[in-house]
Design goal:
Growth Hormone, Chain: A; 17 helices; about 80% helix
């Protein structure tokens, strides 16, 4: 990344995403252990804490994206971030499991901050640069997860299990202030008016079904995310039951934090160093396929790991696969529709991801209860299966957007 040539608005949005992810990474990796230890709930119910968030996001995602198209990215971004602040405070102060679920649902409903951040970047970036720019978003994700999980584990071990959630609320508050004070609206008043006036700027089911490239992208995203959801729902519990089975609770928290920090560092390096070098050589479609293969290798290592150090190659390959696959897939989705609905299609993409996560996290706890390793074997199989539609459908030319009039300045 050449900082001299990069748009300052992109740097600002990346900083906002980093701070947001730092807060989330401090809290969310230990959420399942927190719920298990504080409220003594079974793994099958515990996993629903993850799926409830994504169920709410699935329902709200397209609306959040369309609202940002019509009324601007900035106000929607601020409101969604405030929802995250409130949700973390609710989790940290929760007296019972009902409040935990309410907090996760609230965060899901208002959790359009990443959708809007991605839409903002597509507003200020020409199509040929979108994969690289969206890669930086995932790099900011990764950097947040370099420091966040270890910091969350240390805070939990030193000050108690509720403190990381209050610290995450502080970090989310910082992002609200950064957005309000430093970011400018990416859509002009004329663009917002045009988007509101357009009668065909919403993606109804019939339009989606007629758009074969978009359907293929959504199918790949669904299958790939299903594999990720299995890991999200069970990784902390898997670390506790398998990788760190002989260790104390404090060392379990720290060890899981270190493995997740490895995921974050690998993803950061993949998307700041590797992605921009391999993208010109292989192209977006091939990177989707290569990324899926690498991610399957990571899931394999998790499935066969018997000691903590074997979790390291799993973390590295899994993160590399995600880093190579997800930015090209999202960039391809924005090129299948008109410019007026970029926010809407990213919202639809996110809802597809959320739908996959709803089912996978809900099933993850059930599968984990059968055998702690089964979710990772299933995740590897699904990652490989997602390569079939990628190879068959994405090699066809994408539909050109109806509007090519966007100005990037």
């Amino acid at each position: 990344m050449n900082l001299k040539n990069i748009d300052k608005r992109l740097l600002t949005i990346l900083l906002i995403v980093f701070v947001q992810m730092l807060g989330a990474a401090m809290a969310l990796p230990i959420l399942l252990l927190y719920a298990q230890r504080q409220f003594h709930i079974r793994p099958e119910i515990n996993a629903l804490l993850i799926s409830s968030f994504f169920a709410a996001q699935f329902l709200a995602g397209p609306t959040i994206g369309r609202l940002s198209d019509k009324y601007g990215r900035l106000p929607v971004l601020i409101v969604s971030q405030i929802g995250t602040v409130i949700s973390f405070i609710m989790i940290g102060a929760a007296p019972n499991i009902t409040i935990l679920f309410a907090a996760r649902i609230l965060d899901g409903i208002t959790g359009g901050n990443i959708i809007v951040a991605q839409a903002y970047i597509t507003d200020i970036t020409p199509p040929e640069k979108r994969t690289e720019s969206l890669g930086y978003i995932f790099a900011a994700f990764g950097l947040g997860f370099v420091f966040g999980p270890a910091l969350g584990g240390l805070l939990s071990a030193a000050f108690g299990p509720r403190i990381p959630f209050f610290m995450a609320a502080v970090a989310a508050t910082v992002t609200v202030i950064l957005t309000w004070r430093t970011l400018t609206e990416s859509l002009t008043a004329e663009q917002r008016l045009k988007n509101r006036a357009a009668r065909n700027n919403s993606l109804n089911p019939a339009q989606v079904l007629r758009n074969a490239p978009l359907l293929a992208i959504l199918l790949i995203a669904f299958i790939g995310q299903f594999a990720l959801g299995l890991l999200q729902a069970t990784f902390a519990l898997y670390g506790d039951a398998v990788l760190f089975a002989e260790y104390s609770d404090r060392l379990v928290d720290l060890g899981i934090g270190i493995l997740l920090a490895t995921v974050g560092l690998s993803q950061f390096l993949t998307q700041t160093v590797l992605l921009r070098r391999v993208l010109p050589r292989f192209g977006e479609v091939n990177l989707v396929i290569i990324g899926g293969l690498v991610r399957a290798v990571g899931m394999f290592f998790f499935a066969v790991a018997t000691v903590p150090w074997l979790g390291l190659p799993g973390s590295i390959f899994f993160a590399m696969g995600m880093g190579l696959m997800m930015p090209p897939l999202q960039s391809l989705s924005t090129r299948t529709v008109a410019d007026e609905v970029r926010g809407g299609v990213l919202g639809l993409y996110q809802s597809t991801v959320s739908l996959a996560t709803i089912f996978s996290t809900a099933l993850g706890g059930v599968i984990f209860a059968l055998n702690p390793r089964y979710p990772y074997w299933a995740g590897m199989t699904l990652s490989l299966f997602a390569l079939i539609p990628a190879y068959i459908f994405l090699r066809r030319p994408l539909r050109k957007p109806k509007s090519e009039t966007a100005v990037y300045k």
